[in-house]
Design goal:
heterodimer, A: Rossmann fold, four-stranded antiparallel sheet, globular, B: mainly alpha, 76% helix, binds adenosine-5'-triphosphate, binds magnesium ion
Chain lengths: 244, 248
């Protein structure tokens, strides 16, 4: 579903991504972790072409991002993305947030889009809030709306960039629950997160990044089960976050 | 001060036709509004376009808009008006020049000059407000728009501009009021807007103080009404939780 092939990216002289390669199969859930500044967000943003890269290629569902012929808006409309800071559109109601891209990008009718949006809103447990604006919802609720908004586009894959790290602790679970359910339904997911409980529960594979490189890329069982077999850097990282 | 106030002067005949002095003020106010509203329309449309140009990922467009702003903000308004009225017509192609100088009535050619002048001058200022508004938005909004499959123009029209305009209503209001105040420069090229009518009344009737008091009052009431209209618009489009620049 996603094939990342030898991606290199620089900001000026600074190399953010170095020879990154990995595959995400259909239905697979891959968790990406690593210390701050290791390039996780950059990598995941490359997958839907929010960040350009200078070398290598990423192929999403058969479409090459590096190819100049690729219609990037079209590609992105098939890749759902959830951000750390939700990024709902504050001037639009929840219903409009859920329907605007369906209407303007996919060309669905307003009725069809609304029906779809409200069904998804119900699924994330927020049907009662359809008429409100994002500013009237809690962080956890906004993030659940953001997930519904991405799902409304019928994406072939969902990308998450630290979806719970801007949330108050008591709201983390309501968002993780939605993500777990999504994973169990077979959605292809690539999640940057430090929620190791989530990784243990639903991840198929774990990728560990450090200084722009993919240092570990193994199954969940290997990653958590055979800690001594991991690189020093991964061990240090795990020791740090598992303490909390 | 030994001055004989005569507020009745506004209802006295001007000696020209059957006009009373109040008629002059009404005509003047009409011109002032006609200059300002049309000028504002130009400023808003062009300024928004320039503001967008300054923020899009395209060097050339950004440079064009920046240059525009630098020129129109740094040349004094009066100089710009004289250029538009006295110089630019001479640079036009022959038929246009003839049309401007011979076919148009003196009032029409002055009106055209001042509207273009104020519109383009104010556009530079609107541009800066629009740019500030767009740049005040979190960068994630652009990415969120892109991530849903919007094209760049769609991101601007559906995500960025509706938010940017809401947060810049207060500074835009002061630009809107400024254009009304600046419209008085038209009197310098002979257009009989409010200030010119006031001066004329003062000269004809010798009731200088009354004339200028009335003019002050009209400008004041006009500005207060405009401010109230803008406040009302601001309230109407207000959205819970949206940031605001330039204070509440
Ligand atoms: N626009 C930019 N220009 C220059 N350097 C950048 C830019 N964006 C990110 N970087 C740098 O690239 C590196 C990787 O950033 P990235 O945001 O991908 O890290 P991350 O792994 O997501 O970290 P975090 O856990 O803090 O989110 C960092 O060192 C960051 O400072
Ligand atoms: Mg990050």
């Amino acid at each position: 579903m996603i094939s990342i092939q030898n991606v290199n990216k620089w900001y000026g002289d600074f190399q953010v991504l170095t020879n990154c390669s990995t595959e995400v199969q259909k239905g697979e859930v891959v968790v990406v972790c690593g210390p701050s500044g290791s390039g996780k967000s950059t990598l995941i943003k490359c997958v839907n072409a929010l960040e350009p890269f200078q070398q290598g290629d990423i192929v999403v569902d058969g479409t090459s991002i590096a190819s100049p012929k690729t219609n990037l808006p079209r590609l992105r409309s098939r890749v759902g993305m959830v951000f750390q800071h939700f990024e709902l559109f504050p001037h639009l109601t929840i219903t409009e947030n859920l329907t605007i891209a369906q209407i303007k990008v996919l060309g669905r009718s307003k009725d069809e889009a609304t029906q779809k949006g409200l069904a998804l809103l119900d699924r994330v447990g927020l049907a009662a809030h359809a008429h409100k604006h994002p500013g009237q919802l809690s962080g956890g609720q906004q993030q659940r709306v953001a997930i519904a908004r991405a799902l409304a586009m019928d994406p072939v894959v969902m990308l998450f960039d630290e979806p719970t790290s801007a949330l108050d602790p008591e709201m983390v679970n309501e968002v993780l629950d939605v993500m777990v359910q999504l994973a169990q339904e077979g959605m292809t997911m690539m999640c940057v997160t430090h929620e190791m409980g989530f990784a243990r529960k639903v991840a198929d594979r774990v990728i560990f990044m450090d200084r722009g490189q993919i240092v570990e890329d193994c199954t969940k069982d290997t990653f958590f089960g055979d800690i001594n077999g991991r690189s020093d850097r991964a061990q240090q990282f795990l020791a740090k976050i598992l303490q909390h | 001060m030994n001055y004989n106030w005569n507020w009745g002067v506004f209802f006295q005949s001007t000696g020209i036709g059957s006009e009373i002095y109040l008629d002059w003020f009404v005509t003047g106010l009409g011109w002032t509004i006609a200059i300002s509203l049309v000028g504002w329309l130009i400023a808003l449309v062009l300024g928004s376009l320039l503001g967008v140009m300054r923020t899009v990922p395209n060097r050339l467009l950004a440079t064009i808009a920046t240059t525009y702003v630098e020129i129109f903000r740094n040349v004094p308004l009066l100089v710009q008006l004289f250029l538009w009225y006295f110089l630019v017509p001479d640079l036009l192609p022959e038929p246009l020049e003839m049309w401007f100088k011979q076919d148009l009535s003196p009032a029409a050619s002055a009106y055209l000059s001042v509207v273009v002048c104020l519109g383009l001058f104010t556009a530079a200022r609107v541009c800066e407000q629009v740019r500030t508004g767009i740049q005040a938005l979190p960068k994630g909004q652009l990415n969120a728009g892109y991530a849903l499959g919007f094209t760049l123009p769609q991101v601007y029209t559906t995500v960025l501009l509706p938010q940017a305009f809401r947060i810049i209503i207060p500074p835009l209001t002061s630009e809107f009021l400024n254009i009304f105040k600046n419209s008085s420069v038209a009197s310098l090229i002979g257009l009989m807007e409010l200030l010119a009518q006031t001066k004329q009344t003062a000269e004809f009737s010798a009731n200088l103080f009354e004339a200028f008091t009335l003019a002050t009052l009209i400008y004041f009431v006009l500005n207060m009404s405009l401010m109230m209209i803008m406040r009302w618009i601001e309230k109407r489009v207000a959205v819970p939780g949206l940031i605001s620049v330039g204070g509440k």
